[in-house]
Fold this protein.
Amino acid sequence: MKRIRYMIVGVAVLGAVQAAGQKRQIGYDDIAAGRLAARSVYGLRPMADGEHYTTLSNGHVLRWRYADGMLVDTVFRRPAGFPAVTGYELSTDGTQVLLATGREPIYRHSSRAEYHVYDRSTGDLRALSPNGKQQEATLSPDGRRAAFVRDNDLFVVDLADGKERRITHDGRRGAVINGIPDWVYEEEYSFSRAYEWSPESDAIAFYRFDESGVREYSMNTFRGGLYPTNYDFKYPKAGEENSTVGIRVYRFDGDTTVEVDLCQETTDTYVPRIEWTATGGRSTESKGSKLAVHWLNRQQNHYRILLADPTTGSASVLYEERNPRYVERINNETATFLPDGAGFVVKSERDGWMHLYRYDMTGRLLNRVTEGEWEVTALYGIDPKSGRIYYQSTEGSPLRRRVYSVGLNGRGKRQLSADDEAGMHDGVFGPGYRYWIDYFSNADTPTVVTLRRTTDGRTVRVLEDNAALRNRIQAEYTLPRKEFFTFTTPEGVTLNGYWLKPADFDSTRRYRVLMTQYSGPGSQQVADRWGWSWEAALVREGILVACVDGRGTGFRGEEFRKCTYGNLGGLEVQDQIAAARYLGTLPYVDPARIGIYGWSFGGFMALNCILKGNEVFALAVAVAPVTSWRFYDTIYTELYNGLPQDNAAGYDDNSPIFFADRLKGKLLLAHGTGDDNVHIQNSYEMIEQLVRAGKRFEWAIYPDKNHGMGSSRDHLLRRAIEFVAEEL
């Protein structure tokens, strides 16, 4: 569910435009039109030489020089009449360009497209395959072949002669998937390509999902025809059967496929990632790279890295970790293998904080790399030549980020981000590690993008400073003041929060307050970064906006985040109620006029707060809420709440559908019928229980709209502002 953590985006506003030349408070339309949105630098693709990068501009692929930002040449020039190019990939040697056109979205990350291959040496441009759209096409590292998925089967094309080879033959919708993930893997493990080329280009490792035992969810599509149609897809709800997942390796030299031994006694497990590693593993009977398979049990509290021989499929356990609650989400940074085969670095919170640990290729711990009561939040890369690791952390404050480098031995730490720029720093590092791009902002500073040296962090040049935005704000707007604060709950827990107050804030006045929150596991809303969401428009209406990150949110250590395990919505709701009570004691807050808003997990929270905290909250806006965790998917829900078969109380004690009779305040409930993530079933059940309890409330159902509401988002948020302004 991590992709639905940050659902607060641009919106629109109320009120008449003030006289020309007069500064004004921001409103709904300012935010919706992006008038306060910072420009940034996107789409830079570092090249293998470490000196250049490419970009996509108007369908042309351009090559630039890091040092001075000068255009070097055009890698691909889009011919007249050629379809719009939506993505591209360069072969390692830069001779082949894979181009995506006609992209057709499927789910959150996946899509189909018509791919073309451009040969720079000959100028030849041709379709990758004439037999229908493809999914997830990629070039082999040597640039001689391309792979893609069509109709749940994996294909390879020889670029020299265009010959197409089908690698798998059992793909079938609703049954077997090869080379792409099933719905829940795509949604929760955030990948849409489920195959990996070997570094030598002699093999492809791929996932095979057997989802024949997974139950289907059916969505109605209402618009566009006389009769509604159904869209059915496999969706494993908490406690239900998952796909059976296998990992296979196809080898070109013998046209053979082997199955990898996952070293397990049951197939009810997960494989969140696979990746190829450099030579250096324990198995010596074969040459070339090994395959690393990341494995989790169903409860997600037992994690292994398996090292497999790609010629035989045999595997052994390289690394193992257990946790009494759960192992934090496995992603591309959980384990990073050194490109020279000298070992790997693991991110682990074994001491209560997320840190880096170095291992050799026998699985032996060599040393811990980072240490302290702060967390490593991103691992950007490892330079084997200099023996340095580049990472981001919360050192200094959980509300901010800095970028560092440190030796593999844990010595020689250097801060690369500027110490006088307190806020959020994020980095992008290219091959060779000569340069990195620093993305910086804070609550008062729109994004500043600079190119820096990795040796000392010194600025080479500024790529974007948003000077025009700063000047416009200074000339035209009086922005709300964003103030950070902390308070201590009756249980003795210190929580972080922020206020949005008008520039002319009057401490002798009593204000209405809307609390905004997400509150989901590991999330963070209270952070020192630039950004204006729709709630800021309420300040002009005389409403203060407050946000508090309660227990279960991230970047304050393992215990703070995992104390909610097995009881989703318990401590989180207690903390939001405690926050509202605290705010109500302040002399400038009207304690009888406090509301709360949330989307997705935040919607689940908003419902629970107005029901369980009905003496504190006078209003709630809940969008696309989970109303019972029994309705949500296996991977996300069971990670944080265990299986419902083992923890019925954890699923039911905090489900809003069981507390509908407690509603006293005003409620706006909204959902899209085409939401493949948090199904409309959640809101339909909530509506039924509220009606049975005889409660009055407002609800808005958006036909065929997904979790983000698409083109109906503006309509919904306009109504949300009106609802809060009128009813709070």
